[in-house]
Amino acid sequence: MSRNPADNSWKSAFFSSPGPESGRCALLLGVKGAFMGAADTVPGVSGGTIALITGIYEDFLAAVKSVNARVLARLVRLDLKGAVAEVHIRFLLSLFCGIGVAVVSLARLMNYLLHHYPVPTWSFFFGLIAASIWVVGRRVKSRSAVSAAAFCIGAGAAYVIVGMVPAQTPETHIFVFLSGMLAVCAMILPGLSGAFILLILGKYEFIVAVLKNPLMPSNLAVLGIFVAGCALGLIGFARVLKFLLDRYHNAALACLTGLMLGSMRKIWPWKEPLLAGKVHGELVVLKEKNVLPDGLWPEAAVPVLLMAAGFALVIFLDRLGRRKGMD
Predict the structure, then answer these.
(1) Quick count: other Cβ atoms within 10 Å of Cβ 236?
(2) Are 107 and 41 in contact (CB under 8 A)?
(3) How confident is the model at residue 277 (pLDDT cuts 50, 70, 90)?
(4) Residue 115, Cβ neighbours under 10 Å: how many?
(5) Is pTM, for the whole model, over 0.90?
(6) d(Cα 205, Cα 192) in Å, to the nearest integer?
(7) Which of 4, 194, 223, 242 shows the greatest Cβ crowding within 10 Å of its Cβ?
(8) pLDDT tens profile 205-229
């Protein structure tokens, strides 16, 4: 719906840019956002992967890119309606409401599952990512040498990054801000988890602790600084990704597929600790290697079933999205 210049109402401004046209569509987009948020709370699983397999990835990048210099100029002139008309406000509101609710409500649950039921939890996500590689890889239309090189670069980069040992870092406001910028860049890259980048930067436990009690005054300040870093990183990096997808679509998709493949190193369910250390006074595993399960029955039965369930869920979502696209 385009905005009528003669109609200067808030309603006209709100509906002038792309976004869900009905409450049902907005709810569906919010649910997809909730899945993205849930994925982003898990070190090793990316919300960008969920955006890709649910068919909203490029719309998401376009919506973020709509926050541009013209919008900032309108805000400076206090032209709030004009700013709202420029931004894909309905899309962003629906999506980020879902992401926010999931991150705040599921951070504690995901932390609990990863600590107490690591193998079943990682198994389910392993199935999700395995199917996502197949789903996204099919969208690469041209199997050229450039696409193959982009795939290998993405796979190699993710494989190295997810093998890094988490660092001990300061808790200053500037470092929290920078951590938000870097984490959100990974969040929108399929295969690279924002939560895992926070883990490498030594800020995962710190941010999760803040999210457990977000309304405390001290936590609110930290959360505001972190969100500001995320916002700046998101606005900048989304433009880079959108440019690459518009100009070099096949190579960019091949690289994103490679990123997901390389990240499988982190998501493999069965691990053996190699290095432990203290983070915020708690003894945690800093480095581990992938191993095979002790036996196929009964040790691996439930994890394999959960892998299959995760794989089937992605295939179902992909077929549902393609069917809706043809309607």
Answers:
(1) 13
(2) yes
(3) low
(4) 10
(5) no
(6) 18
(7) 194
(8) 788 778 777 788 888 899 999 999 9
Q: How far is CA 239 from CA 19, 65, 182, 188, in A?
A: 19, 6, 15, 12
Q: Locate tokens 């909203």: which residue?
A: 56
Given a contact cutoff of 8 angstroms between Cβ atoms, the answer to whether 287 and 165 are in contact is yes
Tokens (6 digits) for 197: 């980048």
- The length of the chain is 327
User: Hey, what amino acid is at 258?
Assistant: G
pLDDT, residue 239, reads: 86
Q: Which of 267, 240, 234, 268 is nearest to 255 (CA)?
A: 240
Q: Is 306 helix (H, G, I), strand (E, B) or coil?
A: helix
The alpha helices in the chain, defined as continuous H runs, are 10-14, 23-40, 47-53, 57-65, 69-76, 80-86, 89-116, 118-137, 145-161, 173-187, 194-200, 204-212, 217-247, 249-267, 301-326
Asked whether the beta carbons of 262 and 191 are under 8 A apart, the reply is yes
Tokens representing 252?
Answer: 């960019």
Q: DSSP string covering 203-266, please?
A: -HHHHHHHHHSTTSHHHHHHHHHHHHHHHHHHHHHHHHHHHHHHHSHHHHHHHHHHHHHHHHHH
pLDDT digits (tens, 9 = 90+) for 19-39: 888 888 899 999 989 988 888
Q: Retrieve residue 143's tokens.
A: 């199997």
Give tens-digit pLDDT for 286-312: 677 888 887 666 778 889 999 999 899
For residue 175, the model assigns a pLDDT of 92
What torsion do the CA atoms of 268, 258, 315, 41 make, to the nearest 10 degrees?
A: 60
Tokens of 269: 């369910």
Both structure tokens of 180:
């938000």
- Quick one: pLDDT band at residue 282, thresholds 50, 70, 90? low
